[in-house]
Amino acid sequence: MKPIRSSQKTLTRIGVIISLSGLVFGGVYLARPVPLLIAKGASPSQTPRKQAARPVKPKKYSDFPHGIKPHALECSQCHKFPSANWKTVRPEKDAYPDITDYPKHESCVGCHKAQFFKGRPPVICSICHMNPGPRDSTRFPYENPRELFDKSAKAGTAPDSDFAISFPHDKHIDIVSGDGDPSYKPAKGEESCAVCHQTLKPQGNSKDEYLTKPPANLGDAFWLKKGTFKSTPIGHTVCFTCHSLDSGIQPTPLNCNTCHKLRPQARPADFDPALAAKMGIGDRITLTQWRHRESAGAFRHEFEMHAGMECSNCHNVAKMITLDSKTKKVSIDACAVCHATAKLDDGGVLNYEVDQRKKNPTFQCVKCHVTFGKSPVPESHLKALAAAAQ
Hints:
The protein is mostly helical. Among the domains are: 69-156, no CATH class; 334-389, no CATH class. It is built from 14 helices and two strands; from the N terminus they run ααααβαααβααααααα. It has helices at residues 2-31, 86-89, 106-116, 146-149, 190-196, 237-240, 256-259, 273-279, 284-291, 304-307, 325-328, 332-339, 349-359, 379-389; strands spanning 163-165, 260-262. A two-stranded antiparallel sheet has the order 1-2.
């Protein structure tokens, strides 16, 4: 019987050891620093420290994604209007009340106190600070004004903003507000497009038609040309001309989320980042236009025949929804007016490229496309040719 009692004692001791080990290691696990998601209105002391039993995936704290649920807050909870530096960040004559600086520490530390004291230096500080530390508080330029940010080292590697702009074109086709200025002459229809959109990096009288120097053996290959894209406003300056605090025209500068909406998932664009890098294109505005444009870098707005056309020849401005890329895409029917002919011998570019594809399945349609030219010919293109033949 002694061996049995000895075995029971041994088993009992093993059980106690296992139980104590579980408590110790469980306590160590629970004591590990993990991100705390604080409910709206709760203080850090009110937030329970115990985490869910399942493992918590590590988070990246080197950027601030606006699109995740814990960050779905009122803009004013972090961004205070106007920023303290609004009078000095722009030249005095161009200054106006605006959000031109990062949120203060109190906007972050409520939820991210643990990250503020983890690491040397803490990773979360690198979002705003160039060299985080008590002796250097230098920060990167804030993304507004863009004209200053785009000149900074951070602009070259910074991703696109989490936000896209919701802009109702139909309400702005006629710029009618003179704000009481009798000398103001409102722009009408087509003229109003030029208020916001100008030819980007035009060639003008220069002999160099390419944006960067092409290789000597370029031949008929694609290389981005000057005057290809149209610019769009990159800041508040044009908008605040009418939508200021003084005018009271809604939305005012206090209504950030009226215009700034989380960017929808992008549709494929006719853009090749490797090719853009090979061309040495570092201009952020040009790259943004190219990356998000549904048509190709092969369409040049400054080309003489294109420059003489009305915007409405290609764009249905009244139906444009800036958050819906389908409404901004130029229809093939607009292109076919000039580039599809009744017969191949009549010189239609669309006719030629479709004919070449029929003869050779590997032929790439590069007259109008950069990367899309490798794809099968869309049904819409075939219908446009059929319509031109009638």
